[in-house]
Amino acid sequence: MTVQLNIRLEKEQKERLAELAKADNKSITAYILDKTLLENEPDESAQDHASERIADNSTRIDDELYKALIEQLDRKDEQIVNLQKIIYNKDTKLLEYSQKKFWWQFWK
């Protein structure tokens, strides 16, 4: 089914449209359809391409954040191990010191 569309233009605008259509070897109707409807399709594909790039960038950022968090967890694990060693060493030194006391230093 086809429908008719009427638009109001000034005489100069119609002449300009006719010149542009003639330069493309098209009728005015074909020129208007090509410029309005068919040129929007590449924009949509460009938008799809842009959304794919954004998704790729988002994935890359997520991967970088994941790696950074893993590194932080590894550093925290090392810190915990070091703190446990320090506590163990202090406890053993405290036990050694308490065992070296003579009987008269027991209550000090």
Q: In words, what does this structure look like?
A:
- The chain is mainly α.
- Helix content is 78%, strand content 0%.
- The termini are far apart.
- The model has no long low-confidence stretch (mean pLDDT 83).
Topology:
Layout: H1 11-23, H2 28-38, H3 40-99
Helix pairs in contact: 1-2
What is the N-to-C order of secondary-structure elements (H for helix, E for strand)? HHH
Average pLDDT, to the nearest integer?
Answer: 83
Helix content: over 70%
Q: Calculate the terminal CA-CA distance, rounded to whole Å.
A: 106 Å
The number of distinct β-strands equals: 0
**Helical stretch count?**
3
Output the radius of gyration: 40 Å
Using the alpha-carbon principal axes, give the shape.
Answer: rod-shaped
Please indicate the count of domains.
Answer: 1
| Structural class by secondary-structure content | mainly alpha
Please give the largest β-sheet: none
Unreliably modeled segments: none
- The amount of beta strand, in percent, is under 5%
